[in-house]
Design goal:
The protein is mostly beta strands. It contains 1 helix and 2 strands; from the N terminus they run αββ.
C-alpha cells in the first residue's frame, strides 16, 4: 500500500480495504494511531488459498 494518508476516527469507518493483486480478495488492514489520526497498515491478503495470505 503506497497510500500514506491518515484518517480521522469518522473517516476510518468508511475506509475500503484494497484488493489483492493476485486473487482480488480484500486485504487485512490494521489501524495504527498517531495522535488524533489513524494510518491503515496492510497485513496481507484475507484469502487463505492465496499465496499472499497472512493470518
Amino acid at each position: 500500500m503506497s497510500d500514506f494518508r491518515t484518517y480521522t476516527e469518522d473517516e476510518k469507518h468508511s475506509y475500503v480495504a484494497p484488493s489483492c493483486e493476485l486473487c482480488g480478495q480484500h486485504r487485512h488492514i490494521v489501524w495504527q494511531q498517531d495522535g488524533e489520526r489513524w494510518t491503515p497498515r496492510d497485513k496481507g491478503c484475507s484469502n487463505e488459498a492465496c499465496p499472499e495470505f497472512a493470518p
